[in-house]
Automatic annotation (TrEMBL):
PANTHER family (alphabetical): FAMILY PROTEIN, PUTATIVE (AFU_ORTHOLOGUE AFUA_3G15060)-RELATED (PTHR39175:SF1)
Organism superkingdom: Bacteria
Transmembrane segments: none
A family per Pfam: Glyoxalase
Organism expressing this protein natively: Cellulomonas carbonis T26
Segments forming domain VOC: 2-131
Entry protein name: Glyoxalase
InterPro entries assigned to the protein according to its UniProt record, in alphabetical order: Glyas_Bleomycin-R_OHBP_Dase (IPR029068), Glyas_Fos-R_dOase_dom (IPR004360), VOC_core (IPR037523)
Amino acid sequence: MRLHHVQVGCPRGGEDDARRFYGEGLGMVEVDKPPLLAGRGGCWFRSYADDRAGGRVVAAEIHVGVDVPATPGRRAHPALVVDHVQELEDIARRLRDLGFVVDTTERHTFPGYERFHAVDAAGNRVEVMAEAGAGRSGDR
């Protein structure tokens, strides 16, 4: 079994805010929704990774769907893993620069990882994590 995607909600008209958070902030790529679903609103995002054969595979996919009324996931959340602690820090900085809340109070509470939690414009909680010590300045 594997995970195909996670869906979070946004209010009607919240797609541009989702693009700022998931696209600009997290660095995910927006992909077209299938034509049969496009009329529902929302937007979809993917991140890619290199596979062992040198090709690209989908590493994570988040679907932002329109909820009426919008009810953010405050405890339930997607957790995204990045390759390096420096990437974790870069994403946190980008999100803060875009005006999003980034909480690092639980930075060292998940054994083997460093992490932060952020809140998208619709109030959904998102966790971003990296293996502890991976890719620190001077480690390369």
